[in-house]
Specification:
Elements: H1 21-27, H2 40-56, H3 60-63, H4 66-81, H5 87-101, H6 105-118, H7 120-123, H8 127-150
Region (Disordered): 1-22
Protein name: SRA1/Sec31 domain-containing protein
Domain SRA1/Sec31: 9-140
């Protein structure tokens, strides 16, 4: 394998082509629909509303940990408000919370894993609270599927 060229031999990043997802999608005859852009405050309000909604609909076994879950969600909100969390984390949390509210525990779990892999130091203080909710939604989904199979 040939050695890599020295950094000085690489073209400046401004001369590299930029990746535009909407162009890539249109090359395949697809239309990319981007989520609406929310302000930082609108984003955290929607995330907290979604997660609170899931928590309130939870069974008693989750509610016994409600105080701990709320404490962790408050830590997430504080980090969001103090601009500690990156915009990429904001977007992923919006998608994760929408998935949970919509009952898609599998998607929420995939997003959770991605956040923990990519941003472990920022997410670990509060992610356990979100994880409780993901387990709740996944268990609900499995119970519904099991109930349908028995019918």
């Amino acid at each position: 394998m040939p050695p890599l060229p020295p950094v000085s031999a690489l073209p400046p990043s401004s001369s590299l082509p930029s990746y535009k997802p909407e162009e890539a999608a249109s090359n395949y005859g697809l239309e990319l629909t981007l989520p609406p852009v929310l302000s930082k405050q609108e984003g955290i309000e929607r995330v907290m509303a979604n997660l609170t909604s899931v928590l309130e609909s939870a069974s008693e076994d989750i509610k016994k940990n409600k105080e701990e879950i709320c404490r962790r969600l408050d830590a997430m909100k504080k980090m969001w408000d103090e601009d500690i969390l990156k915009p990429e984390i904001h977007q992923r949390l919006l998608t994760l919370s929408d998935a949970l509210k919509g009952g898609d525990g599998v998607l929420a779990d995939q997003i959770h894993i991605g956040l923990m892999v990519d941003h472990v130091s920022l997410c670990s203080p509060w992610m356990a609270g979100v994880r409780y909710l993901i387990h709740h939604v996944k268990n609900q989904t499995q119970a519904c599927e099991t109930g349908e199979e028995e019918s």
